[in-house]
Write a structure and sequence with these properties.
Layout lengths: L5 E3 L3 E3 L4 H7 L8 E5 L2 E5 L8 E5 H4 L4 H10 L3 E5 L3 H11 L5 E6 L3 E6 L5 H27 L3 H27 L7 H29 L5 H22 L3 H24 L2 H28 L1
Parallel strand pairs: 5-6
Antiparallel strand pairs: 1-2, 3-4, 6-8, 7-8
Helix pairs in contact: 3-6, 5-6, 5-7, 5-8, 6-7, 7-10, 8-9, 8-10, 9-10
Length: about 300
């Protein structure tokens, strides 16, 4: 839509707000609005909630409860969900999954239903903080997993594995923010969504490594362990580049990635059992770390 600029006094320029937008969010004289500049783009936003998005999950029709039912409505930005179920066991499964949905709480329940509602406000400033936290967890899981494997502390890997659940909770929250209010720079919303998705999938690979080594409790071959360390340093390199752009680090991301993947493919073909399986997961970690550079460079365009 187009708006004419109106001059008031000697130096003040104003434009009118769209009436539908004003009514939708209940904007009144004296309200404060957020105004953000980004080159030729000027974004005006409000913290006021729009009308609640509500939905119903009827397990009498869908059958067994799947944890992704609740996760999906949470991620896409619904504010209230009613779940109809037929057993108390299902209710316990709902409670277990609810703990992963930041800001979602049960506000009403009966013998065969419960109503879940968002009780938390979300804002653009939260996104950057939560994204930074997910990257810290990703790097910490890589570091701690490598350290435990070196020391053959397999029971410790079970504790390290819980970082994946925390990471899932935070990446889900990032998706919710992007789906509900987007990124302050609209063109960045899709790029950031891709980045969050890739972080979650990368951390999943560390979860698989933990599960396999906890089960087998067998020391890794030194070549596989060396590859593991190389993958961790590669992830560290990406995080350094993400925090502060450096052209030399960019070139190193490309060259180190190719070299590490060549080593991984060779080991997958040569090794057997847990060594081959771990080399496969490490290969996926290296590939997914490289894939993180795609949304990163899109951000820099």
């Amino acid at each position: 839509m187009k708006r004419k600029v109106v001059k008031h006094g000697t130096a003040t320029l104003t434009i009118s707000l769209p009436s539908k937008w004003v009514k939708r969010f209940g904007i009144k004289p004296g309200d404060e609005l957020d105004v953000e500049e980004n080159n030729q783009l000027l974004t005006i936003s409000t913290d006021k909630n729009k009308s609640l998005r509500k939905t119903t999950i009827d397990l009498n029709e869908l059958g067994l409860f799947n944890k992704n039912f609740l996760s999906n409505v949470y991620q896409v930005g619904y504010d209230e969900v009613t779940i109809n179920f037929d057993t108390r066991n299902t209710y316990q499964e709902i409670l277990k999954r609810l703990s992963d949905c930041i800001g979602f709480e049960i506000i009403d329940q009966g013998e065969r239903y419960c109503v879940i509602k968002s009780i938390a406000q979300i804002s653009h400033t939260e996104f950057d903080k939560v994204l930074s936290r997910t990257m810290l967890i990703m790097l910490a899981m890589s570091r701690d997993c490598l350290d435990a494997v070196k020391k053959q502390e397999y029971s410790r890997l079970s504790e390290i594995r819980t970082m994946e659940s925390t990471n899932n909770k935070l990446t889900d929250y990032c998706r919710r923010i992007l789906n509900k209010i987007g990124h302050p720079d609209p063109k960045m919303t899709t790029i950031m969504y891709s980045l969050v998705h890739d972080i979650e999938k990368l951390v999943d690979e560390y979860k698989h490594v933990c599960d396999d080594l906890v089960e087998h409790k067998k020391p890794l071959d030194k070549d596989v362990l060396e590859l593991f360390e190389g993958a961790h340093k590669y992830l560290e390199l990406f995080c350094q580049m993400f925090n502060k752009f450096d052209n030399k680090k960019t070139q190193k991301m490309f060259s180190d990635g190719r070299e590490l993947l060549d080593k991984a493919r060779k080991l997958i073909g040569e090794k057997k059992g847990i060594d081959a399986n771990t080399a496969h997961h490490i290969s996926n970690i290296i590939t997914k770390t490289y894939e993180l550079t795609i949304p990163y460079f899109q951000m820099k365009l």
